[in-house]
Amino acid sequence: MLPTFRKFLAVFCILAWQSHATGNLGPGAIGVHRRFEYKYSFKPPYLAQKDGTVPFWEYGGNAIASSESVRVAPSLRSQKGAIWTKSQTNFDWWDVEIVFRVTGRGRIGADGLAFWYTTEKGDYNGPVFGSSDRWNGLAIIFDSFDNDNKHNNPYISAVVNDGTKQYDHANDGTTQLLSGCLRDFRNKPFPTRARIEYYNNVLTVLIHNGMTNNNDDYELCLRADGVNLPKNGYFGVSAATGGLADDHDVFHFLTTSLHAAGQVGDGQKVENQEKLTQEYKEYQDKLEKQKQEYKKDHPDEHHKDDEDWEEFYESENQRELRQIWQGQSQIADHLRELSRKVDEIIGRQETTLSLVSRSAGQALPPPAAGGAPQQQLPVGAVSRADVDLLLTNQNILLSSIREIRQLVGDINVRTDNIQTNQKHAPTAQIQSAGYDVQTLIAEMRDGMNQVKQGISHVGQRLGAPQGAAQVANCPTGNCVGVTLFLSVTVVQLLLVFIYNIFK
Fold first, then answer.
1. What's the confidence (pLDDT) of residue 403?
2. Using omega within 30 degrees of 0 as the cis cutoff, is the peptide bond preceding 191 cis?
3. CA distance readout (Å), 84 to 34, 122, 123, 185
4. Contact 120, 151 (CB under 8 A)
5. If you ran DSSP here, which 8-state letter would residue 23 be given?
């Protein structure tokens, strides 16, 4: 007898579990046709456009829309905001999924967030969580502040109003709610999710508490039968803060319309497909007819239809080659300017060398009679310290010339790359002016070699014995010393070189 009773009890438990599981199934599990409604939804990225608007939605109050979320109410005191759809629904049953986050620095927050389905759009600064009172429709309220001091918040409640009742703030709407559940949705590691289903007058609210990153980890919050909501309503979300403040951010608002099996059949789909196909065919016929008429009216331009239209568009290789060519042209312009500056410097160097040569051929004045032999240099003569300074400046100048030669080598490498790309991409063409860069490089090398030879000649003259390097006094009273002149010349060369490099 006992084994038979155990079998009966096991079968009864299985049947009870199956009945409970079937009762909790959503409409998507029983073969209901589901269709995503983009005009009643928003989600990131690009949630808000560049002008700040949200497509098919409008918001106001203190709400702020960004590309990732809508901050319905910021964490400031006495803030209210809301966002509503622009158009009414054209379906009776629906499923809405809201992904939101309520965060604040305090242990207790306020006031909360609300989901709306009403016949008229509410106010953006209303008294009921940022929306209007005496609404006609459904409100799912996520209340985070304990007004009645019963320690039963945060609380999620469903309130149905026919447009005549005033919301009971003092008791947190407990005297008017249809059903509800106690769930903490503040300061969670992951966004909170709420799924609200209304199908065949059955209202179901599922809650994801935000403790895991599993998007399907829902649990039942409330289920109510016999709920009669008005047709053709508006969807909306509102939020408000009071003395305490939280950030109320909504990331996703996804609406799906629910239709009974067979209500949206394949016949309507086929009809729509045939209509679109017919419209497309008519458009193609009209276009071909216009082409034939144009050919008759313009017989001389008939050959243009046979041209390859790809030649009117720039390929990736052509674009890359054009950019390289523009860069090389700019480098060539800078090199021409640098060559002109170097020519000026070479002219000044030759003038300096001529002055030094004339000064080196003149003797020093003899020492005073009866006095101790002292070696005194006349004014403007070159001393040993000046020679060392000149040699140091010469080394600096040589290092700068090496950098210039390295830059010229880079230009040679880039020119070779252009020629190689031209061989691999026959559609791209290299202008003949590209070979002027090599001629200019050769001229630059010759100029640099002349500068180097001139400076070496100056160093040899200055490094000669002291007796042969006697310099006469300056023929005029206001001429500049050789050391100062060479120093200024080298500094000018370095400045010109740095300016052309960093330009």
1. 81
2. no
3. 23, 8, 10, 23
4. no
5. H
Burial of 267 (0-12, 13-18, 19+ CB in 10 A): exposed
Judged on CB neighbours under 10 Å (0-12, 13-18, 19+), 11 is exposed
> Which SS3 state, helix, strand or coil, does residue 158 take?
strand
Q: Which of 176, 173, 199 is nearest to 92 (CA)?
A: 199
Structure tokens at 237: 């979300």
pLDDT score at 17? 43
Which of 404, 396, 400 is CA-nearest to residue 334? 404
User: What is the bridge-based pairing of β-strands 64-65 and 57-61?
Assistant: unpaired
CA dihedral 317, 323, 329, 330 (to 10 degrees): -160
Which of 370, 364, 385 lies closest to 472, judged by CA? Answer: 364
- The whole-angstrom separation of Cα 89 and Cα 92 is 8
pLDDT given for residue 67 in this prediction = 92
CA distances from 324 to 159, 417, 424 (A): 68, 10, 15
Q: Per-residue DSSP letters for 325-387?
A: HHHHHHHHHHHHHHHHHHHHHHHHHHHHHHHHHHHHBSPPPPPPTTS-----PPTT---HHHH
With vertex at residue 427, the alpha carbon angle to CA 421 and CA 429, rounded to the nearest 5 degrees, is 65
Q: Can you list the residues of the chain whose pLDDT is less than 70?
A: 1-30, 263-272, 301-313, 360-384, 422-441, 444, 451, 458-482, 503
How far apart are the C-alpha atoms of 415 and 409, rounded to whole Å? 10
How far apart (Å, rounded) are the C-alpha atoms in residues 49 and 138? 30
Nearest residue to 456 via CA among 374, 391, 402 = 391
Give the span between the Cα atoms of 471 and 466, in whole angstroms.
Answer: 10
134: left (phi over 0), alpha (psi -120 to 50) or beta: left
266: phi then psi, degrees, rounded to nearest 5: -75, -20
Q: pLDDT tens digits, residue range 286-342?
A: 988 888 888 888 877 655 555 555 566 677 788 888 889 888 899 989 888 988 888
Query: CA–CA separation, 115 vs 252, rounded Å?
Result: 13
Predicted pLDDT at 24: 45
How much is the pLDDT for 424? 63
